[in-house]
Amino acid sequence: MRFFKIIAAIILLLIGAYAASMYYFVDESKDFTIEKEINYPVEKVFNQFNNLQNFTRWNNFFTSSSSVDIDYYTPYEGQGSSISYTDPKNDTNGEMFLRYENPNRTLRYQLFEDNNESPTVVDVKFKAVAAEKTKITWIVHTPKLSVLRRVENFWTEDRFAENINKSMINLNNVLGNKVEKDNQMAAIKYDSLMVENEEEKLLLGINVSTSNKKDALYRNIVMNYNKIYNYTTMDLGKKEDEFGFPVMITDADNYKDKEVSYFLGIPLSKKFGLTDNNFSFRTQSPTQNYIMYYKGTYDGRIKAIQQLIQKAKKDEMRFGDIRQTFLERPVEDGDVNMKLSLSVFK
């Protein structure tokens, strides 16, 4: 009995010492600041923060778990918007509110985690440091913790910083595809032949061989595009702003052949494991291209392709594949809006 009394006394002393050290040497809440820069204009970046549907697509706090369920409440964008979330697998839940907004300058979030009545308050400041660069500053104030829980403040800042680092990678990927689409649409000059340098691109898609009889090729393209789109959005859970325009790669002059082989794919930012063997990744190498934008019937593209080939021959350039980038979703019995790119080299 005396032995157990001694053990109990030691435990009480340790708890007392721990509580005293937490009370006197560890703050009940924690304040810290984290700064990052991203190579996109402030108006593009800000919209990814003040629209909570956008925010949850790239913020690692939400994307890191496949079991999190999010409800969005009106207004879905700007001051007054909010969400609630629950993650049964990780046994967490909470609510987030956008309390204040100064467009393209400042936001204030309140995050209530796991039924805690005191919120984490996060002020986010945005500053344009160049036309295509934005500085983002997070100023974080954590909720007050009881004496026994104050030890958590030792790793709060590191955990928050790790989440921001992963989130910035996701945000950069989202903005990369979104801005690329916006820029391409803004740069369109139909039926004008231009020269363009194209960077390396990773495509997820399907290899196909099909008949080139009247309308058969285009119907086959529409069918396979729908397969790729559904697999990307439904099976892989990718959002529209996470991938680029669909690209079809084929021989430049096979429009004359009875049968056509092509690869049709959607640009993504990185490779990952695939659950369907019908799909594969293909890396599109950097190239110099002769390009034309074309809008009309799919068969009508042939004239534009012939112009690109004639230009290459006139300039004594060798040429490789033709890449047909669909700027609008291909639909059966509809016109196409596309960019035709002929890779050329000496």
Automatic annotation (TrEMBL):
<protein>
    <submittedName>
        <fullName>SRPBCC domain-containing protein</fullName>
    </submittedName>
</protein>
<dbReference type="InterPro" id="IPR013538">
    <property type="entry name" value="ASHA1/2-like_C"/>
</dbReference>
<feature type="domain" description="Activator of Hsp90 ATPase homologue 1/2-like C-terminal">
    <location>
        <begin position="39"/>
        <end position="175"/>
    </location>
</feature>
<dbReference type="Pfam" id="PF08327">
    <property type="entry name" value="AHSA1"/>
</dbReference>
<dbReference type="InterPro" id="IPR023393">
    <property type="entry name" value="START-like_dom_sf"/>
</dbReference>
<comment type="similarity">
    <text>Belongs to the AHA1 family.</text>
</comment>
